[in-house]
Specification:
Strand order of the largest sheet: 1-3-2
Structural class: alpha+beta
Shape: elongated
Strand content: 15-25%
Largest sheet: 3 strands, antiparallel
């Protein structure tokens, strides 16, 4: 593979990428870029607003599952709690891949590095 793809938007793009990264013509730089991309697909969680807390109310649970931000609201006098949840719009889901598939791809590319 001479150049790393500029756009990876479909499962077919992923299959093409993996097949090329596993070939002898793939550069070390492209393999590293591929691993960065694939590992990025595993970041599937985001913080989502959960509730407003009172001044003394503790978080529902520990970080990283819950995060409390101080000085929120119009008057900067509110505490907002956020919960770490699966993002249904994460790129892995848009590509129709599972975590296991991506981990398998990572293993394949690492074996070719």
């Amino acid at each position: 593979m001479k150049d790393f793809p500029k756009i990876i938007a479909t499962k077919a793009d992923i299959d093409f990428l993996i097949s090329n990264l596993g070939s002898p013509s793939a550069t070390v730089e492209n393999k590293k870029k591929g691993l960065v991309f694939l590992n990025g697909l595993l970041n599937t969680k985001v913080y989502q607003f959960d509730k407003t807390l009172t001044a003394t109310e503790p978080a529902t649970g520990p970080e990283p599952d819950y995060k409390v931000l101080e000085n929120q609201g119009e008057n900067n006098d509110e505490r907002h709690q956020f919960v770490f949840v699966e993002d249904p719009n994460a790129k892995i889901h848009k590509l129709g891949l599972t975590v296991a598939q991506v981990q398998d791809y990572i293993t394949q590319v690492e074996g070719a590095v």
